[in-house]
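Notes to self after the call with IL:
- keep both proteins in one doc
- input above output, always
- annotate only the second one for now

Protein 1:
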Amino acid sequence: MPRLHAPETRWFDDFAIGETFYIPSRTMTDALFAAFQLASGDNDPIHYDIEFCKERGHPAMLAHGLQVFIQTAAGAGNFPQQTADSLVALLSFSGEMHHPLYAGDTAYPGLEIVKLTPQRTTGIIEMRAIVLNQHDQLIMEGTHRYLVKKIQPVDDESL
């Protein structure tokens, strides 16, 4: 019986430059800040002490840089479902911060294919990762690179 919870697998050759992948928006709540602080161990008061932040000219608590970057996690969108049987690995990721993201802001992440590098049995999908805020300011921009299998050719002798 086919899986009903995921679309048919796409292989490296099924993707095209310019394709985008939806990732739901998320409002940065105090609870998310606390959870990230607990998970990361980052105890800089700029991320949890509102008075400390205000004394330094920030209107609210400042999101951790990695907390911003993880908003672009492909697993939060539909890319992993499309590559359920073809995704081999996340090869690398990078990011650059452009503006702060504060508690109360809403992050609007997205992924767009910018490069396809075919190999013998696999290919590398490179995606531009962005996070905008509710004012359409570019908060973070970066890159994800994924190794994806090519579809296996049918062996004519086995037919």
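Protein 2 (the one to annotate):
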Amino acid sequence: MRHALLSSTSIMTLLLVGGIASKPAAAQGGPPLLTDDPGTPGDGVWEINIALTIEQIRKQRVYEAPLLDLNYGYGQNVQLKFEVPWLLLENSPDSLRSGLGNPKVGVKWRFLEEDSAGAAVSVYPQFAFSNSCAVDRGLTEEGFELLIPLQIAKNLGPLSANLEVGYAAFHHTEDVWVYGVALGREFPRFELIGEIRGAALRDLSGSELVFTVGSRTDLTRFLTLLASVGRSLRGSEEGGPDLLAYIGMQFIF
């Protein structure tokens, strides 16, 4: 769900720009949601997410099968990211294209802590490279994507809340603003999460919203099941997705 072919506009592309997983004290952003949070893995800790995603608009269905998401904690406040999907595009039962999607790199820096500042705050620039083979096969659009978002997280009693606001620049299309609000409630070995994710063109026109609900289930200390489902609040007739789905495993070591 993180490539330019997911819709005909840059807005839907940025709606589906996701973060990488994190393990703060009360996580709510990151996979399987689209909105990220300030959490980082911890010094020397690897987080690897392997997932299947599905996104459908009208009769077009796009799979990331799999989506490989590698994350490494450099110190307690910095997170390094590398992500790449294997894309499958299905326009009809008789039309299927596949290939490696655009790789993405990023660095997250949490520069404020909730204990001392009242809220955790981070900045998380991410850069996606154009893959010429994917462009030639019609899987992605040509050109780079640069996203610079800010994340703010705070505990609200039994709930954890996260706000993300960012600006995205594209090589060949109009820049956009992206924003999201995520909430989480923890239970023993289980977390219920949800979000509203939005994007708008640079002049704040053409806004689009996606609603997603999901869960994180701890199978062991080092293994977590991630799942979510969502859709556009407007539906495919307005260019939004009829279905967004994410199912994956997170490995921590």
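Annotation: DSSP finds three helices and 14 strands in the chain. The radius of gyration is 17 Å.
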